[in-house]
Specification:
This protein is globular. The strands form 2 sheets. It has a 6-stranded mixed β-sheet with strand order 6-7-8-3-9-10. It is built from 9 helices and 10 strands. By secondary structure, it is of the alpha/beta class. The chain starts with 5 loop residues before the first strand and ends in a 5-residue tail after the last helix. It has a single domain, classed as P-loop containing nucleotide triphosphate hydrolases (Rossmann fold, 3-Layer(aba) Sandwich). Helix 3 crosses helix 4, helix 4 packs across helix 5 and helix 5 packs parallel to helix 6. Bound molecules: adenosine-5'-diphosphate and magnesium ion. Adenosine-5'-diphosphate binds next to helix 1.
Length: about 240
Amino acid sequence: MTAPLLACRDLVCGYGRPVLEGVTFDVGPGEIVALLGGSGCGKSTLLRTITGLLPPLAGEVRVLGAPIYDLDAEARGQVLRRTGTAFQQDALFGSMTVADNIALPLRELTDLPEPVIREMVRMKLALVGLTGFERRAPASLSGGQRKRAALARATILDPDLVFCDEPSAGLDPVVAASIDAALLQLRAVLGMGLVIVTHELESIRAIADRAVMFGRGTLCAAGTIDELIASRDRDVYTFFHPRSA
Ligand SMILES: Nc1ncnc2c1ncn2[C@@H]1O[C@H](COP(=O)(O)OP(=O)(O)O)[C@@H](O)[C@H]1O
Ligand SMILES: [Mg+2]
């Protein structure tokens, strides 16, 4: 299957008033695409729109081939169930163990027997480097460990496409690198596509195949990371060569 996992066409998104206009890009199977741009430019707003939470003001969003906002709630839910989202705030439930947090989508959406659920949780924890963390309370985890637990939960149903909002924001470089490693490991094993909002240049270079950049209310550049690094567009150049400014 070569159809895009995500296709945005002339998308306008915002809250009554547009935040971003003219957003057209695709994410192909197994691709990691970074969404870039300054604080407040609309990255999280776009993410809300492509994850089914904020209807677009105009244009089309296709997720896994389906025009999600043309579907009824039931059919849209079926499509979105094949995606996973790790929000900017990791949102683990503090009253539940790490294992119960990660098992939540399995318990809510499947009839799998308990031993199978436990094994699936164990495997996902191993993939994100948290072997043996099942019985821990979220509050006892470091920031980076919580992010990785949230990734395990976002991928517990083996999604085809995963959305991640600033997974390594505010973390030190070593911890950020451990998040990158977890994302690459998940992609290697699950073959999923990934849309990731990030400001971290190191992380973009390490894991992204392509990037889409936003500014001044619109999509202002898109390409492979090598193409963008070589770009002479002023804003793109400044982003990829911060020390030259
Ligand atoms: N719930 C909301 N209602 C109205 N405006 C919002 C809401 N959330 C964000 N905004 C506005 O939308 C713009 C883009 O915000 P956001 O998408 O969070 O940017 P980014 O994630 O790129 O930092 C900002 O001007 C912000 O104030
Ligand atoms: Mg944001």
